[in-house]
Amino acid sequence: MPVDYEINAHKYWNDFYKIHENGFFKDRHWLFTEFPELAPSQNQNPLIGLLVENKSEIPQSGSCEDGPRLRIEEQHKCSLNSLSHETQMPPVEENVTKKLSQLEICADEFPGSSATYRILEVGCGVGNTVFPILQTNNDPGLFVYCCDFSPTAIELVQTNSEYDPSRCFAFVHDLCDEDKSYPVPTDSLDIIVLIFVLSAIVPDKMQKAIDRLSRLLKPGGMMLLRDYGRYDMAQLRFKKGQCLSGNFYVRGDGTRVYFFTQDELDTLFTTAGLEKVQNLVDRRLQVNRGKQLTMYRVWIQCKYRKPLLSNAS
């Protein structure tokens, strides 16, 4: 039976969105309180602050952490490489280019390639995170990518009146598919958002999924997560027979959910080479006065950053 839920996972989520469309989840306007990195004032390359901290390692004369300058420098480097004769770079520029080699996205065109600040939301559903970002953040350098397992969900995003292809690119993607690449180069994203999505996949596939996402982050880029914590009310309400494996359950509609501990998430992110910025438990008592229900919620919120420079450099 667990195999069926894995093989037909896309069907269960597609059915979920066909039934609920965009009426199940509410837009997450709390995003900017919990994750100010998504707010307009944060739309600068996260390398700026980190490079200041590491300025003893990177010469100031190569201040290519600024988006537009970096693109010009990269285009210049690409054009040099295309010449039949070799041209020596000045030592300072060569040093900076070597230090920030992960940022090179030469000539390849991809959606949002001219943007200076790129956000990817994985498991976007019908856009309850993406659209608040696009509505709130009017930075012309911003580009938002969003993907979901369900073609139905992506169709609902693309047909939403707020969807603007010049600022957003929605695509179908299976987080667990190792053979399918993302439509962006490695080291190109400033922020990756995972909100109640990692818990929906089989636990033994989580590490590889995070590893692949980590490679997409720029040095200094951040992965933001909010998901279900161990002993959340939703876990305690599952009935006998709904547990597929340790802390991994199937709902009545066939979709699945895992309930994390802080240590489990820390291991996933640090194994992928990221550094902890935040890892906290958010416990809340919710009261539904209409149904006379008191609900004890447990969520975990994480922020993990990709190191600016490798330890070897």
Could you characterize the architecture of this molecule?
There is one protein chain. The chain is α/β, with parallel strands linked by helices and 313 residues long. The protein contains eleven helices and ten strands. The strands form two sheets. Strands 3-2-1-4-5-10-9 form a seven-stranded mixed sheet. About 20% of the residues have low confidence. Pfam families: Methyltransf_12. It is found in: Cytoplasm.
* Separation, N- and C-terminal Cα atoms: 49 Å
The beta-strand count equals 10
Largest sheet: number of strands, sense, barrel closure: 7 strands, mixed
Uncertain segments are 46-107
Would you tell me the structural class of the helices and strands?
alpha/beta
Strand content: 15-25%
Please state the average pLDDT score: 77
Physical arrangement of strands within the biggest beta sheet: 3-2-1-4-5-10-9
Helix share bin:
25-40%
Shape: globular
- Report the order of strands and helices: HHHHHHEHEHEEHEHEEEHEE
Helix segment count? 11
Please compute the radius of gyration using only Cα atoms. Answer: 21 Å
Concise structural overview:
The protein has helices at 2-7, 9-20, 31-34, 47-53, 67-82, 91-99, 130-136, 151-158, 206-216, 233-236, 262-271, and strands at 117-122, 142-148, 168-172, 189-195, 217-228, 243-245, 248-250, 256-258, 275-288, 293-305. It is α/β, with parallel strands linked by helices and 313 residues long.
